[in-house]
Amino acid sequence: MTIAITPTQVPVVVDESKCIAEKGCTVCVDVCPLDVLAIDLVKNKAFMKFDECWYCLPCEQDCPTGAVSVNIPYLLR
Amino acid sequence: MKRILYRQLKRARVEITNRVVVTRVLTGASGEVAAVMGFDCRTAEIVVIRTKAAVLCTGAAGRLGLPASGYLMGTYENPTNCGDGHAMAFHAGADLANLECFQINPLIKDYNGPACAYVTGPLGGYTANSKGERFIECDYWSGQMMQEFYNELQSGNGPVFLKLDHLAEETIQEIETILHTNERPSRGRFHEKRGNDYRSEMVEMHISEIGFCSGHSASGIHVNARGETSVKGLYAAGDCASVPHNYMLGAFVYGKHCGLNAAAYCAEVGHAAADGDAVSAERERILAPLARSEGLTPYQIEYKTRRLVNDYLQPPKITRKYQIGLRRFAEIREDMQQMAASNPHELMRAMEAHSILDCAEMAAHASMFRTESRWGLYHSYVDHPERDDANWFCHTLLSRGANGEMAMRKKAIEPYIVPVDEEERTAYQRLRVARTAEAA
């Protein structure tokens, strides 16, 4: 049976104008307990790759430039 | 906490291997620890680490039941803690204790974080029914508290709420500071989105889905006072180890015991050799989903398993439902042969789905074995509604039988070091607030 992709709005938003991943920063990626943040290798910016968020906030709190904001996942809020 | 821990590890020059998901503890010829095995969740590289001893500290099984929201990671426990350690211990041949004593929490509805009535208690907050009345004497959670919560809902007085709106402004501000910065930093924004202000509205609570946890409950990988499991060289600490109500403090204490004892053990023994066939079999099991380009996704398998856990295992427990549940789980076990993963991260979720299914089966077997009710809602068994100390004042141990099946047996309770007063023995039975006759 073939696999389909279903779009979903993810809880974590990265303000690309503030993100410094292109300078080598990976703080948000490193600190996520679910390993769902990643660096987009084309844009060189962080983003939430999988909708598997615990809304725990270290990504937002540890980001050195305040680029990361966490929304409560839609299914909960 | 993690930052402090990390600094200490760096100072002590502890070698850290990150991003490797351990799936199995491999044993040698005499059943002792020989190696741990897993894969890198970024590259899917298979990793086998020879070791004389291992300490399991994988936390609670927090992705067992499905939350009311339906969001797989919207759990009370950190969702990375999905019962991998419990599954690993089982497959390594270790005993697991009292898995029928489920963790069921009084949580903020949908958010699934703790309402923390017991944190607000000293400041005047309390658990209330829909009329704003207290119905339990003590807000500290326990199986009996959850039973009273359940009874209150059944009697039509629900939902149950956390009541703070009678408190002074300064008190509420203090509560907000504690709860919204320390316990769960995102709680404040959840309430804000909902227009929930502690000053004007009670906070809706609900009975959570089930899990295994020793911190908030009393089950887990069986350990003795030295942190040893029943497998030589295997230790366990924290929420995955069966030290009831040990929380973070107990995790650190047992972590220390396990570390010291494991080190002493290593000094005395040689390396065991892991069985080559076991390594190959596990390598095959791990990589299988990556080899499939079509099939069921880990998301589908996990969602369905956890939904079935809710349907059939959520207390009050009924034997007939448990029997049906086990049949459903067996079907999913078959479906695992079709599970496909398209990248190493999905592979991690696929392996977690295996552990979750293992834990679901363990929860079912353990529950059906203890033919009495105990621990309030945690093991509220409709077919055996009374507590039966004559036959069941004991631990239960679940372990792997000769054919890989889940086998149950009893273990006697050790003599108490600190005796319990007669008065205290019945404390849980006096949890409900007694209502005296009131004038109309």
Structural overview:
The complex is a heterodimer of chains A (about 80) and B (about 450). With about 80 residues, chain A is α+β, with helices and mostly antiparallel strands. Chain A has a single domain (about 10-70), classed as Alpha-Beta Plaits (2-Layer Sandwich), CATH 3.30.70. Chain A contains two helices and four strands, in the order βαββαβ. In chain A, the strands form two sheets. In chain A, strands 1-4 form a two-stranded antiparallel sheet. Chain A has a two-stranded antiparallel sheet with strand order 2-3. Chain A is globular, with a radius of gyration of 13 Å. The N and C termini of chain A lie far apart (about 35 Å). Chain B is α+β, with helices and mostly antiparallel strands. Among the domains of chain B are: about 105-210, Flavocytochrome C3, Chain A, domain 1 (Alpha-Beta Complex); about 275-410, Fumarate reductase/succinate dehydrogenase flavoprotein-like, C-terminal domain (Methane Monooxygenase Hydroxylase, Chain G, domain 1, Up-down Bundle). In chain B, about 35% of the residues lie in helices and about 15% in strands. Chain B is built from 13 helices and 13 strands. Chain B has a four-stranded antiparallel β-sheet with strand order 10-5-12-13. In chain B, helix 10 runs antiparallel to helix 11 (about 345-370). The longest helix of chain B has 26 residues, at about 345-370. Chain B is globular and about 65 Å long. The relative contact order of chain B is 0.17.
- How do the strands line up in the largest sheet of chain A? 1-4
Question: How much strand of chain B?
Answer: 15-25%
Overall, the morphology of chain B is globular
| Strand element count of chain B | 13
Largest sheet of chain A: 2 strands, antiparallel
Regions with little confidence, pLDDT below 50 for 5+ residues of chain B = none
Q: Enumerate how many helices of chain A there are, as a single number.
A: 2
Our count of domains of chain A comes out at 1
| Topology of chain A as a string of helices (H) and strands (E) | EHEEHE
CATH topology of the domain at 276-412 in chain B: Methane Monooxygenase Hydroxylase, Chain G, domain 1
The overall average pLDDT of chain B, rounded, is 94
The CATH superfamily of the domain at 276-412 in chain B turns out to be Fumarate reductase/succinate dehydrogenase flavoprotein-like, C-terminal domain
How far do the termini of chain A sit from each other? 34 Å
